[in-house]
Sequence to fold (188 residues):
Amino acid sequence: MDQIFQQRSDRIADKLEKESIPVEIKLEASDRLREIRSDQRHVLTQEGRETFVLQYLKGEADRFKADDETLADLDAETPRSRPLCTCPDSGCALKDGRLPAAFAEDKSLQRNIREFRHNHLGDPIVLNDAEEKLDEKVERVMSVYDIVLIALSNKCSVSEVEATHTGDDADEPESDSDTEPTASAEAD
Ligand SMILES: [Zn+2]
Fold:
């Protein structure tokens, strides 16, 4: 996954350097990328993904135990009503807002989650929720990358591309057929 993100963000960075693409399009693309910066931080690296999941587990555990008084401090509107995990173990890490000790450092987060779900004596609901939120973030970042790439490749406005690509990523930005008529201006 890291590689896919890296490739796309490299391609975007390349395009943002191209003098043949109008400045206003590049600015719009940069603005759009800025909007997903916090999501990017959570999806681009394994460390970021773990940080997000850990923060989510902790936040949800706090929300689950919260009463009216403590809720305001958590910046949450409602307590969590669904259980964190359905296992009988009172020492379950998920119920305490921690990553399970069984998570191995040399495995991907996805794999750790999958194995934990398989081996745990209960439904790790809060972990499933965290994974779902993470997937949403990944999708959001990917779709902005795609849209920005299409816009930069076609030298058209990002909002225009967004309007025509509603949701499904039907057409991938293909290898750009950027004809560079001002090739001499590109030389540095
Ligand atoms: Zn459990």
Confidence is low (pLDDT under 50) at residues 174-188. The pocket of zinc ion is lined by residues 85, 87, 89, 92, 94, 120, 122, 124 (CB under 6 Å).
